[in-house]
Amino acid sequence: MAQYVGALDQGTTSTRFMIFNHSGGVVAIDQKEHEQIFPKPGWVEHDPLEIWTRCVEVIRGGLAKAGLKASDLEAVGITNQRETAVVWDRKTGKPVYNAIVWQDTRTDTLINGWAKDGGQDRFRAKVGLPLATYFSGPKVKWILDNVPGAQAKADAGDLMFGNIDTWCIWNLTGGVSGGVHVTDVTNASRTMLMNLETLDWDADMLKVMGVPRSMLPSIKASSAVYGKGVGDLAGIPVAGDLGDQQAALFGQTCFSAGEAKNTYGTGCFMLLNTGTKPIQSKSGLLTTLGYKIGDQPAVYALEGSIAITGALVQWLRDNLGMIKTSGEIEDLAKTVDDNGGVYFVPAFSGLFAPYWKSDARGVIAGLTRYVNKGHIARAVLEATAWQTREVLDAMNSDSGVPLTALKVDGGMVFNDLLMQFQADVLGVPVIRPKVAETTALGAAYAAGLAVGFWKEVEDLRANWQKDHEWKPKMDAKTREKGLKLWKKAVTRTFDWVE
User: Fold this and answer.
1) CA dihedral of residues 186, 192, 193, 194 (deg, nearest 10)
2) CB of 164 closer than 8 Å to CB of 4
């Protein structure tokens, strides 16, 4: 019997392949970046063919680093940047346009048009989402409207659509030579095209957005065997599929209602397991699918999405040159004792939860002659913590379940200054697990469960171990004063774009 499970983690800035053992330990990891394409202000694209090439390279690299062959893997799971839309030709396997990334705002005129009749929450009861440029359904509409010949090809049944998970699974299982065209409930719930109750494509939404049903993948459970790999993974079951944030929820073993995790990556994403019934948010959160294991009932979640967190550190590095590596921000922030009165609201592509304002733009507020780059660095880190606080307040209000601790993962959780400040402004402990790569781990868990490598979710809970815990040290008065100033700074970003 094979001893390991693989996970292909296709993220916004890089792709990695990770191999895990039965206790959830990391055996090997290989990772490669891909190009970020910015054709116009507010437009963000990726080349799907480059992404697929990176997938092949990291699968080979991961197996080589581990000294394993494909047959040593029991199954492979996929996790992916969600809402990033790919449309490709069924016959040639070639994309008709670059992938339009979740951060892209080009669909704002479409969104505003649909919102004229019924407002931003026009479809929320049905799909759990506000009208926003974030989701992938409107991106497909944009491609069909703007790529010459695309609409005719789609009408003839020659085009396929998927989030990146669908693109990867199709290629992994053979592409034009019999690749399976599937997605899972978590990814489908990010398109604005899936009905939350039926877990199927919604005929009314397809009509509104002008997306032919023939383009769409079949919606499956997050843990199920979809097909067998070809090439470097020949014969290996492809058996898990979760959008990256849901994969992290799964990897953090948040299997009970009321358990939550926050992932600190390019953006920040907090998910709260709400059980087997969808909870409609009154506070600007998304009602989304948490996961679905085989034939078991689907589990829902409330999600707060923040567009720019880790990306703000990259911006400080790449656009301003204030630091040479992302890791240097902590040392720079430690050169001062506080933020010097500065608040940085990174609404670079509008505000996500809980505001959903696509016409907002970034603001640095509270500048004086006293302020230096240490204060700016600190304000950059604090922006992530304050945005998370606002999302947590919304979750507490919607769910009626006050959070007692927050499980965290992602690249920024090794920044002690940020994690301590996060615990301070939330007023609850912040806990980092031993395996911080919970996104890939979640995809591996889903795949392993589907083939019996793990028997049940309780086996996965037993694997979870705490690495570090930060307890709140800030007094309530200081916390509330900071929150008030933060909220004041946020209002300065509103209605910037005419």
Assistant:
1) 40
2) no
Q: What is the pLDDT of residue 85?
A: 97
pLDDT at 338: 94
pLDDT at 377: 95
Residues 6+ apart with CB under 8 A from 475: none
Copy the structure tokens of residue 425.
């402004």
88-92, 179-183, 447-451, 493-497: range with lowest mean pLDDT: 493-497
Cβ–Cβ under 8 Å, residues 133 and 111:
yes
**Average of pLDDT values for 3-25?**
95
Rounded to the nearest 5°, which phi and psi values hold at 27?
-95, -40
CA–CA separation, 444 and 9 (whole Å): 10
Rounded Cα gap, residues 66 and 349, in angstroms: 40
Round to whole Å and give the CA distance between 482 and 7: 40
Q: How far apart are the first and last CA of the chain?
A: 62
Name the pTM for this structure: 0.87
Return the sign of the alpha-carbon dihedral for residues 9, 101, 82, 310.
Answer: positive
The helix/strand/coil state of 424 is: helix
CA 68: distance to chain centroid? 30
Give the residue from 160, 139, 144, 165 showing the smallest Cα distance to 222.
165
CA 487/CA 351 separation, integer angstroms: 13
Bond before 429 cis per omega within 30 degrees: no
Token digits of residue 489: 């700074």
Q: Which of 77-81, 271-275, 304-308 has the highest mean pLDDT?
A: 77-81
Q: How many CB atoms lie within 10 A of CB 44?
A: 21
